[in-house]
Design a protein that fits this description.
Elements: H1 3-6, E1 8-19, E2 22-33, E3 37-42, H2 48-55, E4 63-68, E5 71-72, H3 77-82, E6 84-88, H4 99-109, H5 114-127, H6 143-154, E7 161-165, H7 173-188, E8 192-196, H8 200-203, E9 208-213, E10 216-221, H9 223-229, H10 235-243
Helix pairs in contact: 4-5, 6-7
Protein name: ABC-2 type transport system ATP-binding protein
Keywords: ATP-binding, Nucleotide-binding
Domain ABC transporter: 10-239
Amino acid sequence: MNTETSNIAIKAENITKIFGDFTAVDHISFEVKKGEIFGFLGANGAGKTTAMRIFSGLSIPSSGTATVAGFDVYKQTEMIKKNIGYMSQKFSLYHNLTVKENLNFFGGIYGIPRKELKIKGDLLIKELGLENEKNKLVSELPLGWKQKLAFSVAIFHEPQIVFLDEPTGGVDPVTRRQFWKMIYEASDRGITIFVTTHYMDEAEYCDRISIMVDGKIAALDTPANLKKHYNAQNMDDVFYELARGAKRVE
C-alpha cells in the first residue's frame, strides 16, 4: 500500500443511490484524509443523509465504488461498523439508562474488555466533570452535557472515523464552541471527523467542505477557497449562491 493511499480514510468514486425513479445520491466522488475534519453540507433533501448511511455501512449504493477505513461499502459493511463511531442529534444515548450504564452498554458493544472498560469509563466521567452525575439518568442531564457525553461515547473505542449528524443542533453558542474543542482534540488524536451541520459558521471550522445540491456535489474545497471563489463574506453567502444554481466548482 502506497503512502498516498494509506492516508485516505474515505474514498468515493461515482457513488449513486437510486430509490425507484428518484436519484438521492448522484455520482458523487471525493476523498477524506485521515485526521481531517470534513464538512458534508446540504439542504434537507440534498442527499447527504443517504450518503452518510452508505459510508456508515447502513445502506448499499446502487452503483459506484467506495471504501471507508479501507473497507469496501458493498462487501465489508460489518468491518466498517467496527471501525467507525456515529453520533446523531436524534439518537446517540439511552435516556432511560444512567451515564455509567450508557458507557458500560456501548463499551460492551464496541468490544472493550471489562477491566479496560471500567478504567476508561471512570477516566472519561472525570474528564467530563460528571462524577456527581454518573448515576443519574441521561434524561436528567442538560442538553449540552448530553451532546458532550454522546460524542465521547461515539469515540469511546477510538474509531478511525466518527460520523456526526447535526451534532450541535439546539445547543447554545457557548456549548457549541466547547463541543468543537472536543472535535479538534479528537482530530489531533488522528480520528477522522465527518460532520453534517446546518450552522454555516461551524462549516468554517472544517478543514474542507463538500456542499451537496440535488444529490450532486456542487462544491468541494476549503472554506477560504470557497469564499474567495464566490467573492463571499461567509459560508452563508456561498451556500446561497450554490442554491441559486451558481457555476459548479471543479
